[in-house]
Specification:
mainly alpha
Length: 76
């Protein structure tokens, strides 16, 4: 596990992620986005069933964070 998990990314890590993103095909990028959206939709559905629906802004924010988290995970 990364010792710096949750810490601000270093310039070296940002460069690693940038290079990783540049190496992805548009299909790979679309798959990452769809996966993040699906995860958030499942979570939002569970919250809705529990009587605590997410508003659109919160859902959009969670999708963006899920995409960044997945890119960071894949890039190393």
């Amino acid at each position: 596990m990364n010792e710096n998990a949750g810490a601000m990314p270093t310039p070296a890590h940002e460069e690693l992620v940038r290079r990783y993103i540049e190496s992805l095909s548009s299909d790979d990028i679309e798959a990452i986005m769809k996966q993040a959206e699906l995860r958030v939709q499942h979570m939002a559905h569970g919250l809705f069933l529990a009587g605590k629906p997410l508003n659109h802004d919160a859902e959009s924010s969670l999708v963006a964070k899920a995409i960044v988290r997945e890119l960071n995970r894949r890039a190393g």
